[in-house]
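Revision sheet: structure tokens.
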Amino acid sequence: MQQLSDAELVRRAQKDESEAIGVLFDRHHMRIFRYIRARIFDTQTAHDITGEVFLRMVANIHTFQPRGVPFTAWLYQIARNYLADFIRKESRMKIVPMAEGSDASHTAVNPAAVIEQKLETEATLEALNHLDNIQRDVLILRFLVGLSLQESADSLGKTVAAVKSIQFRGLKAMKVLVNE
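Predicted:
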């Protein structure tokens, strides 16, 4: 079942084949989690939200219609919508550095290098939060999630040229923000 395309897995999931849903989850879980984790700095909350995204996927899989866009675009739209609702409901979010919980301190010889890396990560995430939503989404999808230009464009409902332009402006803004 692992070798099947997303489109075939969705068709099977729409026929209530639970194994197809499991394969879709396995295939897309980490990318969706990374996307959410880049916006929500608490790892446990990001895991919880990722779970909610996949619950919504299962609940609404019967309504999915390809219409020229890949399944991943639909899945990222669920994630974006859930995140927007979550952030709107949160009056104050806890900021937890992304480096928390990493094993960098176990492998690093130089504690100063570990601290410098942590500060750079925090500065980058802080700068990312000052971008407008579309620039932030493009940079997260491209560089943290690792989607191609085409996959990012499909996920955001934009053209590849638009994603390139947004990416360029976002990177330029990030450089200014990080250097401040």
